[in-house]
Amino acid sequence: MGLRNRFTTGENERAQQTVFGVRKETVEGIAWSLPYLAVFSVFLVWPALKGFYMSLHNWDPFVPSESEFIGLENYIELFNDPVFWDAMKGTIYFVALSVPLLVLLGLGLALGVNKNVKGKTVLRAIYFSPYILTVAVVTLIWSEVYSEGYGLINYYLGFVMSDPPGWLTSTNLAMPALAFMTVWWLVGFNFVIFLAARQGVPERLYEAARLDGASTWRAFKDVTLPQMRNSILFVVIIQFILQFQVFAQPFVLTSGGPRGSTDTLVYYLYRSAFSQHQYGYGAAIGYVLVMILVVIALINFKVIGTND
Amino acid sequence: MTSNRISSKSRRRFIKSAGVAGTASIAGCIGGGSSGYTISFWELFSGGEGPVMEDIVQKFNDEQPLDVDEEVTIDRQRTPWDQYYNNLYTTLAGGSGPDLAVMHAAYLRAWNKTIVPMDDYIDTGEIEGDYLDNHWDLVSVEDETRALPMDLHPVGMYYNKAIFEEAGLDPESPPTNWEEFEAAGNAIAEETDKWAFSQTPYNDGFGTWRTWSTFVKQQGGELFDSDWNPTFDGQAGQNTSELFWDMTGDMEWSPQTTEADWGANAFENGDLGMTMNGTWYVATLEESDIDWGFFKPTIAPNKTQDQVWTDGHTIVMPRSQDRDDKKSEIAAEVAHWLTTENPEWGARAGHLPAAADIRESEVFQNASFYDKTLSKYLEMAEEDMYFYHPKVPNGDPNSESWYQWLLDMWGHNYASPGEALDDGISMVNKGLEE
Fold first, then answer.
1. Which of A30, B70, B198, B281 is buried deepest, with most CB atoms within 10 A?
2. What architecture does CATH give domain A73-304?
C-alpha cells in the first residue's frame, strides 16, 4: 500500500466513525466552530436582527415592549427626508474623494518602495506610521493644521496671501479637507497590503515578459495588476466599507457643517438615534447603509473579479 | 498668548476626541453596603465651573454633612457638555443611570420618562422654602417637583476695557442701549485693528441662540406658540436675523467664520471688543490677563421690553432599576445639600444660586466679581427681565442640530438671512418630533 493510499484509508475510516449516530468528522467540525459561532451570534447576528426589528418600530427605549409596530414607515420616511439625502450625497462625495486616492496612492507607494531605492526601510515606516494613530489623535492633529486662525497651513499661506481660506469652515473645502486627512491617516494600511502582494509576484513572470519585449507599462498591466488582483479587490472593498461609514472625522472636526456640507450617513444615524432619540429611524438608516455596502461589494467582485 | 489660544481650543477638541476614543467615563451605581452609601453623580461642568464642583463634592466627602448613620460618598463623573445629554439619555434608557445628575431646567418636561420626581423621596413641602420662588417654579412641572434647583445662569455682555479705550470710548461707561452699542461697535471696527463683537465666544449654534433669542424677545417677538410650534420667524426674528447677517457683513464687526471657539480665543487674547455669554464666563475671565467689564445685554434695536435669556441648572434623580428606597432618600438629601449649602457656586462659578440663604451669605456677597457681574445679574432678576429657555415637550432643547442654522447664518453660508430662518423653523420642527 502506497503512502497516499494509507492516508486516504485512514481518513475514510475516521470519517465513517460516528458519535450518537452522527459522523465523527461532523461533530468535530461543529465543536471547533462553536466558540466562533457563539461570539458571531451574540455580537453580530443578534444585534443585526434586533436592529432590523427596531427599524420596523417607533422604538420606545424605556419600555421596548410598548414600541409601536409601524412596518416600513421608517424606511418610507427616510426616502422622503431631505437631510438623509444630503447625508447620502455627502457620504458618496467623501467616498469618491478618498477611496480612489487611498487605493492609487497606496499602490503607487508600494510599487515605488518595492524598487531598490535608498532608504526604503525608513520610507516604509514613514508611510505606515500614521495608520497606527487612533482617529481621535488624527483629528486633534489636523484640527491644528487646518485651523483658520492659527493653523499650520494658513500660517504659511499668510506669507503669500492676505486672506487664507477656512479649510473646515468653507462649504466647498471642508469635505475635501476631511478626505485628505483620511487619506494621510489610512493609506499606510493599503500600502502594506499592496507591498506584500507585489513581493509575492514571481520575478520569473517579469523575466518572461522582458524576454517577450514587454515595456514597463505592459508588464505592469499584464503581470503586476492581474497578479495583485485579489489584494486590490480586498483593499477596494475594505476601503468602500470603511469610508462609507465615515463618522468620527465630521463628528469631531465639523459637526457635519458648515451648513451640512460634511454630513454623512453614519453621523446622521448617530444624531437620529442618540440626539433625536429616534432609535427605530436610526436603525433604518443603518440597514439602508448595509444594503448599499452589499451592492457595492458585489459590483466590485464583478468589475475586478478574483484569481480564484 | 498663542499657547493659551491653542491650548483652549485643543482642550475642547481633546475632550470631544476622547469621547470618540471611548474614554468617556461611565459611572457605576455602587449600592449601599455595610460601609455606607456611594451616590453616583453625573455633571457636565467644564472650564472655570468644573473645579468649583469638584471642590464642593470633595467638601461633602470630607465633612459628611448629612445627619445619617452611614457614611455617604459622592462619586462624581464629569462628561463633556456636548456629549453629556446623549450619554445620559442612552444610559438612562438602559436603566443603569447614576443616582443624581445635573440637568438643565429646559429638559424637565421632555425628559420626564428618564427621571423620578423628588417628591417621592424628600418632603418637598418642607424644603420648598429653602429656595427662591422663581427657582422652585422652574422645577415644578405638571404638579411634580422634578428636580431641585441649583441656579440661574443668564447671559450678559462682556467687554475688553483696553479695546474700548483704544477706540476712544469710556471703558467705565459701557453701552446701555442700541444707539450706544452700535456706536461702540462701529468705533472698535473703525478705530482699532480689533474685532468689535462676537455673538458667543464658542461660535456654536446654541450659544448663538442665547444671544439671538434675547434680541428677538427684546423686540417683542415670540419663540414658540402655546402648542409649541416655533414662531420665531416673525418680524422680530427677521429683523434680528438681518442684524446678525450685517454684523459679519457690511458692519464688519466679526469675520464670517464658523470656526469653533473663535470668539473665546479672540476675546481671551485681547483681539475682540465685546462678546455675549453666560454667568459662568467670569470663572474663565478671572484667570485671564485681560481687563474686562460687564454690562446688561438690554441693547437690542427697536427694543420694546427688557428680556434676557436664561436657563437653570437643576439636580434630578434618574430612574434606576437597582436603587432601593433608602438609597433614593439619601440621594435626595445629597441633592438638597448640593443646592443649598454651597455659596461658592455663586461666589466662584458665577451663577445666581437658587437657595435664598446663599444669596444673603457673606461668601456670595464678597465674591471678587460681585459688583462687576453678580449685582447686575441680580438687578435683572429683581426687575423680572429673564425669560427661560423653553421647556419643550419633546426632543433635546440644547442640541446643536436645532440651532446650527444660526451659526451658518452668522458665517453667511446661506444666500440670505431669510433662507436661514426658514431652515431654522424646519430644523426645530424636526427636533420637536417624537
1. B198
2. Orthogonal Bundle (1.10)
